[in-house]
Amino acid sequence: MTDPISKLRSATRRAKSDVANKLVSMCLHELSRRISQNWPVKVDGEEYEKLVRERFGGRCPYCSCDLTDANSVIEHLDGMNRYRAGLHVPGNVLVACKRCNGEKRRDDSLKVLSLAASGWESFLSHNGTYCSAACRTCRYWESVWKDGAERELRLRENMLRIRSFRSAFVEFDQVLPSLMETQPEILTKLYSDCQTFAETEIKSILERVGHAPNPQA
To answer: Which of 20, 44, 79, 100 would bridge 62 by S-S if both were Cys, CB 3.0 to 4.6 A apart?
Structure first.
């Protein structure tokens, strides 16, 4: 059983990590805005969402389930975090089902991927062949397609479909290689610097509070 002090320390670490991750996301959103401001297609609008839904036949690009207003969310192919350095731009934004959006985060949050070069490709590579029996993502895909041969076929088809979709956005294709080479290192430093700043400032505040006179003394 975890003691209260350990729980408090764990909660503090998570809070600092949440703040650092938020700063990384803010940086990526601002970078996205600057990079794509002169692109012909704008990502935040009904036109782009309609284009995406039509391209995938109103189905989730990952599991092919029917999308409804209740089960769909905006999804980033390359996640907007320090490891994937994804952008909120045309070609990286999809409409997917909530289940796939949640399940895909396991691969997106890994520093090093073993199944593919990108988080979304890794997510679609869990066909039960390469991972241990305990792999939660493999088990997820098994719940979607019970038959192993069908599962492998569907995952491969959807991967090819998404690659085709992404290649249609020439502007994104042009900036992607340099972003993938430079941004993860820069964002990891930003994340680390934010954590260090937070720790320093919190320590300073606590020291000032500790030395403050007690009005009830």
So the answer is: 100
User: 3-state DSSP call for residue 52?
Assistant: helix
Over residues 120-167, the pLDDT tens digits come to 999 999 999 999 999 999 999 999 999 999 999 999 999 999 999 999
Alpha-carbon distance of 183 to 201, in angstroms, equals 27
For 10-54, the pLDDT digits (tens) are: 656 677 788 888 999 999 999 999 999 999 999 988 899 999 999
Query: At which residue do the structure tokens 């992607």 appear?
Result: 176
Predicted TM-score (pTM) of the model is: 0.84
For the four alpha carbons of 107, 108, 110 and 116, in that order, the dihedral sign comes to: positive
